[in-house]
Amino acid sequence: MPELKNILNKERLKEPEFFLKWLCIGVIMGGIIGLVGALFHFCSAEAEAFRGDNTWLIYLLPVAGAAIAYFYDAMKYSHDKGTNLVLLAVRDNKIMGIHHALCIFVATVLTHLCGGSSGREGASLQIGAALGSFSGRKLKFGEDDKRIMTMCGMSAMFAAVFGTPVTAAIFAMEVVSVGIFYYSAIIPCVTSALTASYISSLFGNTHLQVSVNVPKADLILYLKIALIGAICAGISVLFCQVIGKTHKLFKKIKNHALRAAAGGAIVVLLTLIVGDYTYNGTGGDMIVSAFTKSPFFAAFLIKMVFTAVTLGSGFKGGEIFPVFFIGSSFGSVFAPLLGLDCSVGAAVGMTAIFCGVTNCPIASMLLSIELFGGEGIGMYALVCAVSYMLSGYGGLYSEQKILYSKKRMKFINKKIGN
Question: Of 151, 233, 278, 294, whose CB is crowded by the most CB atoms within 10 A?
Answer without folding.
Answer: 151
